[in-house]
């Protein structure tokens, strides 16, 4: 009773005292997702007469037409029954899970053991560990443009600068190496290479990857190879893990379950440390220390991982790729026939960038207005290219069911027709 009275007195006194303001941290204020910054400022109100079709989300599970194989579900159920999964794992991950990842990704050209693997909370967590391990506040990393916006968010939140190297749409979104060379400074610490690419849907040739590796060798820079879309490539193209093409350039290859196994919500990613000449010794220690910040990734998924990687039948991946390739072809065919739009045919992943020629339109000056009005008039939502640092394009995610894609493309055609410059 007395305690209650005392508390009441403290509360009453405190309510009258003016507190010092409670400010948010510098890091939190520097943490900006460019997609949110742009989309939150768009006026995205759909046309109430038409159901919304969103081709904006890079989550392949949202429409329900793509789901993981039952092997993953069974593996999770079995993992839940194991008492070890109810406790903490080592912060870099369970040994069995790291060994399974190493075995799955090891090749004669780029051998791996469990000691070369760090497990993280999603590929996003893996990228965070790599960037933080390699760069200090005031340092710089090179990132692709157009590129996945999280690179910028992670770097700038820590005061690490991003230098954006151009990708060339006319060259299947290959990196412009001449431009890249102009961006190197004494503060450059690493180059992020994303292959297959979000948002471009490109898959680099062996020759281009070798050129990129030669560049990094010349400038003595390690690579953060974002290979989350590894193996999601269409016929006529081959995915080459970057580390299989060099014995010299140190590479932190990041990946995860999210896309290939269609379980982005399970938040399991990893770093593969490829370092034949012990150039990343300090970085190994750094990754270990940084993994302790969140005491490691979810243990149930880690324990399920060996079965998921070993027992998911190849036919599951083949079916996913077949569907994505069919949708990519459909998307390219439907959109390339629309005057005023240009299409770079995707080679893999689940994305496509579509160019807008503002001069072909009477009243659409840029990608922001295009996506805003497309939503307002046709209830079709796509992310404007500016979300990826690339104006006058928009990004399509073509994981939606075929009938929804066809409907969306019919509406885009009608929209473009209405807004075309008539002269
Ligand atoms: C290129 C790229 N890297 C990393 C990620 C993050 O993957 P995760 O969901 O495993 O964090 C994504 C997700 O869309 C991505 O597109």
3D architecture notes:
- The protein has 423 residues and is an alpha/beta fold.
- The chain folds into two domains: 33-65 and 315-419, Aspartate Aminotransferase, domain 1 (Alpha-Beta Complex); 70-311, Type I PLP-dependent aspartate aminotransferase-like (Major domain) (Aspartate Aminotransferase, domain 2, 3-Layer(aba) Sandwich).
- Helices cover 40% and strands 15% of the residues.
- It is built from 14 helices and 14 strands.
- It has helices at 2-16, 26-30, 34-39, 70-81, 95-105, 122-134, 150-157, 177-183, 206-219, 281-291, 299-311, 314-336, 367-378, 402-419, and strands at 53-54, 117-121, 140-145, 161-168, 174-175, 188-194, 223-226, 251-256, 268-274, 341-343, 351-356, 380-381, 383-384, 393-397.
- The strands form three sheets. The chain has an eight-stranded mixed beta sheet with strand order 2-9-8-7-6-3-4-5, sandwiched between helices.
- Helix 4 packs across helix 11 (299-311), helix 6 (122-134) crosses helix 10 (281-291) and helix 12 runs parallel beside helix 14.
- The termini are far apart.
Give the tags.
single chain; 423 residues; alpha/beta; Aspartate Aminotransferase, domain 1; Aspartate Aminotransferase, domain 2; 2 domains; 8-stranded mixed beta sheet; 4-stranded antiparallel beta sheet; 14 helices; globular; binds pyridoxal-5'-phosphate; aminotransferase; tyrosine catabolism; Tyrosine aminotransferase; NHTrfase_class1_PyrdxlP-BS; transferase
């Amino acid at each position: 009773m007395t305690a209650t009275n005392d508390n009441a007195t403290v509360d009453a006194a405190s309510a009258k005292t003016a507190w010092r303001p409670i400010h948010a941290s510098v890091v939190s204020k520097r943490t900006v997702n460019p997609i949110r910054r742009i989309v939150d400022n768009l006026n995205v109100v759909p046309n109430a007469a038409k159901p919304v079709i969103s081709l904006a989300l890079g989550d392949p599970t949202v429409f329900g037409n793509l789901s993981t194989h039952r092997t993953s579900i069974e593996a999770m159920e079995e993992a839940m029954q194991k008492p070890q999964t109810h406790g903490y794992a080592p912060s870099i991950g369970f040994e069995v899970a790291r060994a399974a990842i190493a075995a799955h990704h090891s090749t004669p050209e780029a051998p791996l053991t469990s000691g070369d693997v760090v497990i993280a909370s999603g590929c996003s967590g893996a990228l965070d560990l790599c960037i933080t391990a390699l760069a200090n506040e005031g340092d710089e990393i090179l990132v692709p443009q157009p590129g996945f916006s999280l690179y910028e968010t992670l770097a700038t939140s820590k005061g690490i600068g991003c230098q954006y190297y151009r990708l060339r749409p006319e060259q299947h979104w290959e990196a412009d190496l001449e431009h890249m060379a102009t961006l190197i400074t004494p503060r450059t610490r690493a180059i992020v290479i994303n292959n297959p690419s979000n948002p471009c849907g490109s898959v680099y040739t062996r020759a281009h990857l070798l050129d990129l590796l030669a560049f990094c060798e010349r400038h003595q820079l390690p690579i953060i190879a974002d290979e989350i879309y590894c193996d999601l490539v269409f016929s006529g193209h081959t995915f080459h893990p970057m580390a299989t093409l060099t014995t010299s350039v140190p590479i932190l290859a990041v990946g995860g379950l999210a896309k290939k196994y269609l379980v982005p919500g399970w938040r399991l990613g990893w770093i593969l440390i490829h370092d034949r000449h012990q150039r990343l010794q300090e970085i190994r220690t750094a990754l270990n220390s940084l993994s302790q910040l969140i005491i490691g990734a979810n243990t149930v998924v880690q324990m399920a991982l060996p079965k998921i990687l070993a027992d998911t039948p190849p036919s599951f991946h083949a079916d996913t790729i077949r569907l994505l390739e069919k949708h990519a072809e459909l998307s390219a065919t439907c959109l390339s026939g629309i005057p005023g739009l240009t299409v770079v045919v995707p080679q893999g992943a689940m994305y496509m960038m579509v160019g807008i020629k503002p001069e072909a339109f009477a009243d659409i000056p840029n990608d922001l207005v295009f996506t805003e009005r497309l939503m307002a008039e046709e209830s079709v939502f796509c992310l404007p290219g500016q979300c990826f640092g690339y104006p006058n394009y928009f990004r399509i995610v073509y994981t939606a069911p075929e009938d929804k894609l066809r409907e969306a493309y019919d509406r885009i055609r009608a929209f473009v027709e209405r807004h075309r410059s008539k002269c």
